[in-house]
């Protein structure tokens, strides 16, 4: 049976999905400061909204990671995307709108691939920086158990000690500075992005409000087709299939 830990497992190795953002950077530093041994795992899923991805492992070590691994998961994500297309599960429709499952596919591959890498290193405690407000905390939990049924779960945002001390972005940034850790202050956007080799989504923050329009969005792929001054020209493309699988575009 899996066990969800409510407090930090001091003295033990704790694997964490590490993006290099404020939440996971602070979580790694805080765990090391409190006596755990953090080990970071970063998945390369073709996320073009992270321009400096290859430097993430070195940054993880700056925050106290004992192990910092970079896991190339692009090929598996492509394969999973093909399966979703063949099953008619690549997108869903709700309220007359199409939602592409690029982010859910990415979470499935990230969760399983990183836990497999952890298992190779003998790390059987798994966590991530997702908060209790969204569904990512449940996604990573369940996908992790698929890869290692003996996994124990420790999530900083379910630990009252972490939340009480570092419950917001301001508290986290101040804590890092006070304890001498590097902190790269990034400009706050009115929304967040999730990108991988299959596509990108723009969500959360201001975009969650019904009175917020798409005008605030600067798309990280494609063009802002909803704007009156943007012309989207039609284009013909050819896709070559072999044994029912796409293998080439325009060639």
UniProtKB/TrEMBL annotation:
<dbReference type="GO" id="GO:0000053">
    <property type="term" value="P:argininosuccinate metabolic process"/>
</dbReference>
<feature type="domain" description="Arginosuccinate synthase-like N-terminal">
    <location>
        <begin position="14"/>
        <end position="161"/>
    </location>
</feature>
<dbReference type="InterPro" id="IPR024074">
    <property type="entry name" value="AS_cat/multimer_dom_body"/>
</dbReference>
<keyword id="KW-0067">ATP-binding</keyword>
<dbReference type="InterPro" id="IPR001518">
    <property type="entry name" value="Arginosuc_synth"/>
</dbReference>
<keyword id="KW-0547">Nucleotide-binding</keyword>
<dbReference type="GO" id="GO:0004055">
    <property type="term" value="F:argininosuccinate synthase activity"/>
</dbReference>
<dbReference type="GO" id="GO:0005737">
    <property type="term" value="C:cytoplasm"/>
</dbReference>
<protein>
    <submittedName>
        <fullName>Argininosuccinate synthase</fullName>
    </submittedName>
</protein>
<dbReference type="InterPro" id="IPR014729">
    <property type="entry name" value="Rossmann-like_a/b/a_fold"/>
</dbReference>
<dbReference type="GO" id="GO:0000050">
    <property type="term" value="P:urea cycle"/>
</dbReference>
<dbReference type="InterPro" id="IPR018223">
    <property type="entry name" value="Arginosuc_synth_CS"/>
</dbReference>
<dbReference type="GO" id="GO:0006526">
    <property type="term" value="P:L-arginine biosynthetic process"/>
</dbReference>
<dbReference type="InterPro" id="IPR048267">
    <property type="entry name" value="Arginosuc_syn_N"/>
</dbReference>
<keyword id="KW-0436">Ligase</keyword>
<dbReference type="Pfam" id="PF00764">
    <property type="entry name" value="Arginosuc_synth"/>
</dbReference>
<dbReference type="GO" id="GO:0005524">
    <property type="term" value="F:ATP binding"/>
</dbReference>
